[in-house]
Amino acid sequence: MRRFLRNNMLILVLLNSSNIFNYLFQLVAGRALSTVDYGSFNALNSMAVILAAPVAVLPLVFSRYTVKLEENGLGQVKNLLAEGFRGMTFISGVLFLVGLAAIPWLQSFLHLEAKTPIMIMLVLLTLSLLFPVLLGIIQGLHRFTAFGISGSSVSLVRFLSCLLLVFFLGWGVNGALLSGVIGTMAAIGITLFFLRDILKTERENLPHGIFSEMRRYSFPVFLSTTLVMVLGNLDIVLVKHYCSPEEAGLYSIAAILGRIALFLPGVLIIVLFPEAAKAETAGKEDSRILWVSLGLTGLLGGSFALACTLWPEHIITLLFGEKYLAGAELLTVISLGMAMLAVANVIFTYCLARSEFKFLWPLAMGVGMMLILIFNFHDSALTIAKMVLYSIGLILAGTLSWYVLRSRSPLASP
Q1: pLDDT tier at 414 (50, 70, 90 boundaries)?
Q2: Cβ count near 74 (within 10 Å)
Q3: Where are the alpha helices (DSSP H) in 131-171?
Q4: Do 37 and 173 meet the contact criterion of CB atoms below 8 Å apart?
Q5: pLDDT tens-digit profile of 175-196?
Q6: Which long-range contacts (CB under 8 A, 24 or more apart) does 210-215 make?
Q7: I need a surface site. Which of 20, 23, 266, 405 has the fewest CB within 10 A?
Q8: Which DSSP symbol is given to 380?
Q9: Pick from 17, 339, 327, 313: which is nearest to 154 by CA?
Q10: How far is CA 333 from the centre of its chain?
C-alpha cells in the first residue's frame, strides 16, 4: 500500500504539472483568440479527441498485456511494441485519407469558413493514434516517472509552441492546432528515448493467440473509453452546432475550466490500472487500492467543484478575463458533473483491469439519456450543460449501486 500511495503521489505531481501547462495553453489561446475563434478551436480539438476515442483503449490494453509479458523478459515486450506500432501506423494512414474525404461535411457541421484548420486537426489526430501504444508499454512496465515525463512533455511543448505561433506570430486557430501537432511529435520522441532499452532488446516470439485475446479484451475497453470521452467532449461540439458562436466560446471556457475536476484526480487511474491488473493476474482482489483511489479522487475533484460553485466569477476573471464572465453559471454546472464523472471513472478503470464489464450497462444508458435530452432540449448552452450533469449523476448512481451489490454477492461473476 505504501508503494501504491507513493506512485500515486508521483503521478499526481508529474501529470498535474502537465495539466498546468494544458491550462496555460488554453489561457494563452483564450486571450489571444476572439470568442468565436476560441469556440472554433475547441470544437475542432474536441472533435479530434472524439475521433481518436477508439485508440484510447490502447494504453489500457497494452499496459495489461505488458504486465503479463514482462514476467518472461523484455524480448516479448519489444515484439508487442513493434507489432502494435506497425499496426497503428497503417490504421492512422487510412483514417487520415478518410478524414480528407470528409472535410466538406466537417466544415459544414462546425460552421467553419476555412478548410486548413480541419486538415491540421487530421494531422494531429494521426499522430495521436501512435502515441498511446508507447504510453501503454511504459505504464505496464510500472515506469511511472518516465510515464509522467512523457505525458507532460506534450503539454509543455504545446504551450511553448502556442506562445510563439499564436501569441507572438498571431497565427490564430491554425497556430493553436499546430501547437498540438508539435507537442505530440516531441512527446513521441521523448517516449522512444525512455524505451531505448526495449528497442535494443532482441525480439522474442509472443504467446500463441495473444492478439486474438487482446482484440477480445479491446472491445469492452473501447466501449468504456469511448463513452467516457463522449461525456467529456461531445457537449462542446453540440454547443457549437446548436448555439450561437458567442455561446460556444463561453461554453468552451467553462468546459476547459470545469474539466479540471475530472483531469486533476483523473491521473490516479494510471497507477490504479496496472496494480489492479497485477492483482488479478495473481488471482487476488485488493479492493483497498480501489477505495483509496475513490477517496483521493472525490477529495480532489469535489474540492475543485466546490471552489467553482463558490467563486466562479473570480476564477474566470483571473484566468481568462472579464469578456468570458457570462460563463460563470456554466462553470458551476460543468465542474460538478466532471467531479462526479471522475469518481465513476475510478470504478470503470478498476473493473476493466479485472475484466469485469457489467458497469457498461449504467454507463451506456447514461450516455444514451444525455444524447436524447440534448437532441430534445438545446435552447441554450446552459440547458445542454444541465443535461450532461443529470446524465452523469444517473451514471454514478447506477455504477455505485451495481458495484455495492456485486461486492456483497458471493456468487457475483464478471
Answers
A1: very low
A2: 20
A3: 131-140, 144-162
A4: yes
A5: 999 999 999 999 999 999 999 9
A6: 210/65, 210/80, 211/83, 213/65, 214/61, 214/65
A7: 405
A8: S
A9: 17
A10: 20
In angstroms, the CA 398 to CA 324 distance is 35
Other beta carbons within 10 angstroms of residue 373's beta carbon come to 17
**CA dist list (Å): 363 to 148, 258, 339, 395:** 28, 21, 16, 5
Q: What is d(CA 114, CA 246) in angstroms, rounded to the nearest whole number?
A: 19
Instruction: Output the nine-digit C-alpha cell for 123.
Output: 494531422
254-281 average pLDDT score: 84
Q: Would you say residue 410 has pLDDT above 60?
A: no
Grid cell locating 219:
472491445
Smallest Cα–Cα separation from 177: which of 122, 248, 221, 250?
Answer: 122
Nearest to 184 by CA among 147, 222, 130: 130
**Largest Cα–Cα distance in the chain?**
63
d(CA 175, CA 41): 10
In degrees, to the nearest 5, what angle opens at C-alpha 96 toward C-alphas 130 and 234? 80
C-alpha span between 405 and 144 (Å, rounded): 33
Q: Compute φ and ψ for 391, nearest 5 degrees.
A: -65, -45
50 vs 322: CA distance, rounded Å: 30
Q: Which three cell numbers stand for residue 159?
A: 504551450
402/396 Cα distance (integer angstroms): 10
Whether this prediction's pTM lies above 0.90 is answered by: no
Q: How many residues in total does the chain contain?
A: 414
- Among 162-176, 221-235, 263-277, 369-383, the least confident range: 263-277
In this structure, the dihedral spanned by the alpha carbons of residues 188, 190, 194 and 198, taken in order and rounded to 10 degrees, is: 40
The answer to whether 202 and 74 have CB atoms below 8 angstroms apart is: no
Side-chain-facing half-sphere of 396: CA atoms under 13 Å: 20
**Spatial distance between the Cα atoms of 93 and 100, rounded to a whole number of angstroms:** 11
pLDDT for residue 241: 87
Bigger pLDDT: 381 vs 323 = 381
Amino acid at 32: A
Spatial contact of 88 and 11, defined as CB atoms under 8 Å apart: no
Helix, strand, or coil here: 151?
Answer: helix
Whether residue 81 is predicted with pLDDT greater than 70 in this model: the reply is yes
Cα–Cα distance measured from residue 274 to residue 64, given in angstroms and rounded to the nearest whole number: 6
Domain coordinates in residue numbering, the chain = 2-405
